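# nightly structure sweep
# worker-07 picked up a monomer target from the shared queue
# config: single-sequence mode, recycle default, output format = structure tokens
# input follows
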Amino acid sequence: MAIKKTELYSSLWAGCDELRGGMDASQYKDYVLTLLFMKYVSDKYKGDPYGMIVVPNGASFDDMVALKGDKEIGEKINKIISALAEENDLKGVIDVADFNDEDKLGKGKDMIDRLSKLVGIFEGIDLSANRADGDDLLGDAYEYLMRHFATESGKSKGQFYTPAEVSRILAKVIGISQDTPQDASVYDPTCGSGSLLLKASDEAPRGLTIFGQEMDNATSALARMNMILHNNATAKIWKGNTIADPQWKDANGKLKTFDFAVANPPFSNKNWTNGINPQKDEFDRFTWGIPPDKRGDYAFLLHIIKSLKSTGKGAVILPHGVLFRDKAEARIRENLLKQGYIKGIIGLPANLFYGTNIAACIIVIDKEHAAHRTGIFMIDASKGYLKDGNKNRLRTQDIHLIVDAFTKQLVLPRYSRMVALSEIAANDYNLNIPRYIDSSEPEDLHDLSGHLQGGIPNRDIDALQHYWQVFPSLRHSLFAELRPGYSQALISTAQVKPSILNHPEFIAFAEQSIQPFKEWCERAMLKDIPFGPADALPPGASAYRPSMDITPKAIIQRISEDLLQAYSKSALLNKYDVYQILMDYWDEVMQDDVYVLVQDGWQAGKTLRELVAQKGEKLKETPDLIINKAKYKAELIPPALLVARYFQSQQTRIDQIQAELDAASQELESYIEEHSGDDGLLSEALNDKDKVTAASVKARLKLATDTDEKAALKQAQKLFDAEAEGKKSLKEHQEALDLAAFKHYASLSEEEIKTLIVEDKWLASLQTNIQTEIERVTQQLANRVKELEERYAEPLPAITQSVDVLSDKVAGHLKGMGLEWAV
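# output follows
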């Protein structure tokens, strides 16, 4: 049975984090990621004479497993890693972490136990077998762990990782396409752990030729491992200071030039001049100006421009200050703009990156069309994000909107526009985005006449014109003319939302808005995808839409883009919001399901996995079914879906019994509460915890002599018996239903499995979420209408009169008390 991606990742992180102890996350990551690498290359290349990595005898992960409990486990693990490193020219790459360091891993038994458990986390996972064709489980797991380690490492130590969401934007805006050849090169002079390079390479159909340089020793080692884990073992990653000692040069000693470049340099590096005299730079990188000594942002940008071919394109993440800071940076900025190298600027939200909380921007470079540049395309994407813990995170829809707007040069109000170079020159080449794009929401102005004389300004009602275009008669149902320029509300605020939801135009709108989804369901053909290993596919499956890639990533790319287009012309609904609904469901549920289906086929829908806790531990998963005390987890089809389709009558009976039990419990609770007070007939039946129970009632009944008390006790006993009988009946019926469902899994046909997974699970959930989005749009209208009604409900004269009346009443009361109201 395939391992679900999210389950693998979360279990890896939970296990590793639990064993970290007092070690800093930035240090502990080196141990965890090294073991992940050893596990991967052992599973993939051990015994393969033609493998990209040679695994010598005695230098595999299996040899590490054999050391569990060994008194010299740390020293021997170091030797195993060293042997693999020596054989594959990976010295200084995979042997950075010292597994025999007592200061970090503990002494004696503490080290033995910690390393034995750490090795055990990876031991039971056959990582090579859990690779859907074209889907990089281990590479993604590596990135998952790096993201979590970056989160835990704090500001000063989390800069080795660029958030994947930002990496995807850079990779998509530099112009890599399906036509980009494999020998095209991509370069990152501050490559960190290599995620930016890999994202850029992934944009080309056959990948790109990768070059990178990273100054930090441990981080450059992460990058080399990351490349191998992503099947890019030939990527060239060099360790060293890019500004002081760039490694990639041509035959003449000049900087080597590349087709593409991406980078996330350290923000405002204060030591960029170490080892270099900028005024005598042998590579002529500072001909457009020398950056300030204490701010190295432009040093990296100029290095990248110089490292691009005459047709080269690049994207660099820099702090917003580079757009408007004066003096030396202003001169560099002006020169670059006059050269035409800057194609566009994308302003990002604050607090995205692990090394800093400040807002950053992406500067997009295009040397190929520099001579004909007449404007800069600007995007203010600062408001599109999701709060995620103590960081902000770009949603999939935010990424898509940025990329669409930039690549298609879309002019969107308060978001994006092409800014002429003449306009920028008139602003002294200041590129601060708010000078050119006002992304603020229009101010909600109060109307003095409306407050003084009453009435809702028609100006505010007209501002909702995009709703009235869809619901032309709804406006007249909600408002009527009061006086010129002002209207009055026809419906109370409490009835606004029900009135809108029940309006014929909204009902028609809701039906029309779900229609693109239904048409998309037909085109998606999810039930027709021939999931499963290639050698296990049914006859004729190879002919199924041969151009369709059925890897998980290809599937979500195909269906999500289709859904986005399906809602491109939908009134009121934002197509990116609908797109996000699918992407969220993919991340939460569907991705894991598809991943299992790709590897095991539709028959995986029958699988019930027994959950067995390790000795002394609790189950980590909640069981779906309990049969004769054995606990089971349904891999793909929750029992509720099976029951809803095949055992509805039994479920209805259980629901009825539950309702009867709830009523019996409520009646019992009310009866006890009524009669268990100090003087109540059940007061003597209270136990030592001041509770009336079936046992305490039974015991008191044997002693009671008062007729009324005995009658009350018998009634309580009757109610306790009724509740107990209800619980017993519910348990018996539920166990019978669970057993029936348990047995039914094995008899499911492939067609039934497809129906349960695709229709009852995936599409039903998505449709519910889209319908919720339709109602949310309507709720926005209802909220605004209510806000306007309440704002102008009482004109000032009416409020003043009300105050006068209340003041007179207060004065009268005070006078009656012998006091005088002073004015």
